[in-house]
Design a protein that fits this description.
single chain, about 450 residues, alpha/beta, Aminopeptidase, 9 helices, elongated, binds zinc ion
């Protein structure tokens, strides 16, 4: 997988479009000595606590000593479908799997990663049913429940670094249980005694790991907690306690509270679809966008959010953030031409050179200077008889709002053409009158 940077301070994952979405591996390395933690999210595609938490971690945490490797979206095809497993339960394929199984490559690759000598400990993230308690209370609180628990397969792995599984899980939970949102959310250690008692768990990721002498735990938040930000809060809190145990130092750009996580989850991230050279702010995007120029060639895209996927369905493209549909693009298939890099614009009366692909802000007006050999189409603006919209001062009131690409209806596409070929675009955002009057 190729990593590129769009001037943002985080890594961006590139996906080549195919029927199968590939998971991301984001290696957050401090450059300083220390242990390495592998975090695997999204093995079950209908457990959002298990994949939004590692996405937040990969975007907003900095590792100061030791290393954290993050796979936020292992079963990505199932995540975008909000299904436990479109090819069956991936977490029951670690003891044996047939080569023709559609999960074969993913399972084989993640096994290899777990066994990498550098990896000291693996966490497998889930949302489980109910609230685990060691004695029967009612249908939600009982020994058969999985939620709000740190799961171990056995007490310990003799002679392994971090092999005291029960002791570590107990210590982690004690610390996680300080500052709960609600008392019933307390975490407990669930030992599945896999070798003796649990045929199903013998086929799981964690059991594969521990039978290879490598410590592994599952963190389960509860499906009964419906608030995603609360699940992510508990997942991150528990992961941080594991990092403490492993002496991995970290910093983050926010305070670990449910409130701040809610804000981070509301930011869907940026999406760049390279032939357009445009970067879309997914949080502000309208649910449906027409006339979006696309190439008929293989679809490639980049996002700073590892849960973003662009999926072709019939003649439209669905932009997903995990299982959440962010927007649908109705493409205008067109040939691309890449000779144009910068254009001269007059923004609010001031002349500036602007790179193709930029998002620019304006207060009152936009005017595109004529470019020899190129034609300009300002989407949402039209003037009788004019086919090349250069040299015209355009103001917000001149636009037809339905052509805006954002929910606030303030952002418009300015598209450039050479003959019938598309040369890229610039998005212009007019300051929101309602907001600026405050
Ligand atoms: Zn699960």
């Amino acid at each position: 997988m190729k990593k590129i940077c769009l001037g943002l301070s985080v890594l961006l994952s590139t996906y080549a479009f195919s029927a199968n979405l590939h998971y991301s591996l984001i290696k957050k390395e401090s450059g300083k000595e220390g242990s390495t933690l592998l975090i695997v999210g999204g093995i079950h595609g209908d457990e959002p606590g298990g994949y939004f938490a590692p996405m937040i971690l990969s975007r907003y945490y900095k590792i100061e000593s030791g290393n954290v490797w993050v796979v936020p979206n292992l079963n990505f095809d199932s995540i975008v479908k909000n299904s436990r497993g479109i090819n069956g339960d991936m977490n029951r394929k670690f003891a044996k799997i047939e080569t023709k199984d559609k999960d074969f490559d993913t399972v084989s690759e993640i096994k290899k990663l777990i066994l990498t000598p550098k990896v000291d400990l693996t966490l497998n993230l889930h949302d489980g049913q109910g609230f685990y308690r060691d004695r029967q209370i009612d249908k939600n609180f009982n020994p058969k429940a999985w939620g709000q628990a740190t799961i171990i397969d056995q007490q310990q792995i003799p002679n392994a670094k971090y092999g005291n599984l029960a002791d570590i899980a107990t210590k982690v939970n004690q610390e996680t249980n300080v500052g709960l949102i609600e008392d019933v959310h307390e975490f407990n250690v669930k030992n599945t005694n896999t070798k003796a008692q649990d045929k199903a768990m013998q086929q799981s990721l964690t059991y594969f790991s521990i039978t290879n002498n490598k410590p592994a735990f599952a963190i389960e938040t509860s499906k009964n907690i419906t608030n995603l930000s609360q699940k992510v809060f508990y997942q991150l809190k528990t992961i941080e306690k594991f990092m403490n145990v492993m002496n991995i130092k970290f910093s983050r750009t926010f305070e670990l509270t449910e409130e701040s996580i809610k804000k981070l989850l509301n930011d869907d991230g940026m999406l760049e679809i390279p032939p357009t050279k445009i970067t879309l702010d997914l949080s502000t995007l309208k649910p449906y966008i027409k006339f979006f120029p696309m190439s008929k060639d293989k679809l490639v895209y980049n996002s700073n959010n590892s849960l973003v996927a662009v999926i072709k369905e019939k003649d439209e493209y669905r932009i997903m953030n995990g299982h959440i549909l962010v927007s649908t693009l109705k493409p205008e298939f067109i040939e691309f031409e890449h000779s144009l890099n910068d254009v001269s614009l007059i923004i609010d009366g001031k002349k500036t050179m602007v790179k193709i692909g930029s998002l620019i802000n304006a207060k009152n007006s936009l005017q595109v200077d004529p470019i020899n050999g190129y034609r300009v189409n300002i989407i949402g603006f039209s003037k009788n008889g004019v086919t090349n919209e250069v040299g015209i001062k355009v103001e917000p009131k001149d636009f037809i709002k339905t052509y805006a690409i954002d929910k606030d209806e303030t952002t418009y596409m300015v598209q450039f053409y050479k003959d019938k070929k598309f040369c890229g675009m610039i998005n212009i955002k007019f300051e929101d009158e309602k907001k600026s009057k405050k």
